[in-house]
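Q: What would this complex look like in 3D?
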Amino acid sequence: MPNDRRPEIGGTISIQKQAFDIILSRLREAGYQTIGPHIKNDTLVYEPIESLNDLPQGYVTEQEAGRFRLIHNGHHRYFDLIPGSQSWKQYLFPPRLDLLTLQKNGKNWELITPTQDIPSYAFIGVRACEMAAIQIQDKAFLREDFNDPVYHARRVKVFILAVNCLHPAGTCFCASMETGPRVKDGFDLCMTELDEVFLLTIGSELARNLLTGVPFELSSAFVLNNAERGLENAAQQMGRTLVISDLPDMILNNLDNPYWQEIAKRCLSCTNCTQVCPTCFCWDAIDQMNLSGTETRRERVWDSCFNPGYSYVVGGNTRPTISSRYRQWLSHKLGTWKQQYGTFGCVGCGRCITWCPAEIDITREVSMLRKEAQQ
Amino acid sequence: MTNLQVATLTKKITYPNKGPRWAEITTITNETSDISTYWLKFANPAMQASYRFQPGQFNMVYLPGIGEAAISISSDAADHTSIGHTIRFVGNVTRAVSRLKVGDVVGLRGPFGTNWPVKELEGKDVFIACGGVGLPPLRPVIYHIIHNREKYGKVTLLYGARTANELMYTAEHEAWCKAQIDVELTVDRGDSNWTGRVGVVPMWFYQFRIDSHKTAVLTCGPEIMIRFVIYEALARRIPPENIFVSLERNMKCGQGSCGHCQLGPYFVCKDGPVFRFDALQPFFNVEEF
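A: Here is my prediction, written as structure tokens for the whole assembly.
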């Protein structure tokens, strides 16, 4: 096999699993921080990885409303588990970030913000729902009329190795939201993991260059067929479904439905769903001043529409009740988001279901609301 | 590895962290016991000279170590020498503003948001109904009308405050009247010196002759007042397309990014604060939305 052979954009190749380490080390040589799924403290996180050994081989996750378990069942695949509470959002839209630092000088303030290096991340193992979530956040942060500098500076540098999902979890419903289990676009490389090989679809010139010299074979029809069948099966195996045919209207026509109060009896307004949601983009800016009042740091932190102070205005709070806050969240995700950005704000990843301590299930609440609305 | 280039999106990176644009307080006008107007000038004269805003827009006023607050601009848009902010001392930031003195500096970002449609209103009668600190964002409209008085029909300002002492800009009312603006006042609670109207703004609509086919209503104030002003306006057969509302919501970024000011499909900071009422109609009366 000639060593400078390069695959074509749009083509699908298969590589031996060991060859994956070459890709990772090349990305690192090129200055990327390679971030991928990793098991730490008995849970699944997205952290820097260096080789296949850092990946969670042999694990699956069991997910239900309010329940997440990592299970080692000894299979040989590396990307077979559906992610935990973390998502790529934490890298593109950091949960806590310094915007500026000011130092008092007489009556004036001087800018002493330290220059920040914007890291180049290579995301290893971005699932279809997560790819869709990144594309949704792109629409929120990279607008014609306002290009968010924090997000943009990170986003333009990202290398994305996406992964098609073959084994969805119990809380997954990407097939309903039409975001998965197959990754549609936006990736540099898209992988399907089979037992023996990784299939890689080339999405960018960057990926093509990266693969120069990596031993590969063109995928046979048999193997491609296998992957295809796997994806079809995965779509059938979704743990949840959410009917979207009458959305957003059904929700926007039922803003006064008493069912919101029913949900509020269970919702703790804890903000978990918004923190784990890969599309939630709300942030707050707060000042941290030192005790002597001579220096202040302005920070940008994640916020949540479930925080009581979120809608604070003088003389009251626009959404003082939990029912109004839950309605705000859901009617944004599956309603007004579409008017704002042309897509739903939900990708069907199921995180809000898994990580809700009260086991509130967005798919169930929507179908219950629909039932109430029809009565 | 050659040839590896980092570029998937092609937009230019604009990293604006040059820090806040500082403005100095040149004058403070006390309006009432808890409201003052702060006259600001950018420290950078070129910035001051090039700063423009439209009536109804707002700035984010920043006090280092305290925070930022969205404050509407209450001065004349045709005056390029300074920017006026009429501020009531009620929140964290505004209470800190109350301790500032002439010569102190604040950070200023803006102007943000939509404006009152002063151009589109030419040829129409204008009925301004406002209460409390709902007047400051409308004062630039009054100035604009005065500068272009011949372009507008009958102009009425119906303005209410809690008490007579809390009526603002009283020194200017005479000049406004001279410019043929009908200034009509009301207070929630009268006292022995007050001989004018006592009652909330919406209840006085009946006293005015309003030509529904050629009048636009502009309103700003407490949300409950706005709600009833709109009822009255609709009852007087003014079409929703001719009712304009400026809303208050929690605003942190001013650019429709941080999410706080969301109202249905809108971010009030960029799609508002001034809305044509027909755009708000589906959501406006939904409780706690």
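A: To summarize the key features: The two ends of chain B are 54 Å apart (CA to CA). Chain B touches chain A through 53 residues (CB under 8 Å).
Q: Very helpful, thank you.
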